[in-house]
Amino acid sequence: xxxxxxxxxxLLGMVFLVSCASAIPPAxxxxxxxxxxxxxxxxxxxxxxRPLQTGLVVVSDTAEPAAAPNLPDEALVRLGANLQQGLDRxxxxxxxxxxxxxxxxxxxxxxWAQFAELGRQRGLDYLAIVVVSSTExxxxxxLFLRLTxxxxxxxxxxxxxxxxxxxxxxxxxxxxxxxxxxxxxxLDRPSAPxxxxxxxxxxxxxxxxxxxxxxxxxxxxxxxxxxxFEQAAKRLLLKLQNSWLGIVESEARARRTGS
Length: 259
Fold this sequence. Notes:
By secondary structure, this protein is an alpha/beta fold. The chain has one domain (27-258). 36% of the residues lie in helices and 29% in strands. The chain has five helices and six strands; from the N terminus they run ααβαβαββββα. Strands 2-1-3-4-5-6 form a six-stranded mixed sheet, with helices on both faces. The longest helix has 39 residues, at 220-258.
């Protein structure tokens, strides 16, 4: 009976932990795109000329006090390129360019004008905005070296990554689509480099136990962030694909009803 109670307590604890993690980090897109511009799926359906010629703006947000450091520039560029390819595949947009977010800043309740100006400068009626944010915590743990009973003091770093997407119609000042992708990754590392071949190691939480070994001990935190954001991007694209399929199905139902 006691063993059963322990198992139930462990399960409830995991459910609670996952539910808390689903709100970490907090949403940040509201400081870039105001909710007052959000519209229904009907607006997207009424646009006949698809795919939409769209610019992609990837905004690395570290304004929150608990925000993790930025991705390295090279990794952020690679993330933007992967998103460009993925967005072209899952929703009816043609990403014509990835635009620097150098002048984009968060403001309370968002600032539509900075995106409208960016679109005007680039000659674009549509912009796809992806806000990139994450938070981390690190704490001491005991690491057991694989295939041995030897334990080594070390650290565990948890990273929660968030990608928030908004498709802006600058011509009519409305948001056509919104979605987010979240991910949770963990880095285990000994207190000093060179302790064991199995560490440092990165893996995705809560269920994927496959290990990813960073190329260097010093660069392991960046590997954690890159892996976590890649997973968040996959989840974001899947959500967008499902959202677009829902719009297509609504169009089909409308045609059947009208015929």
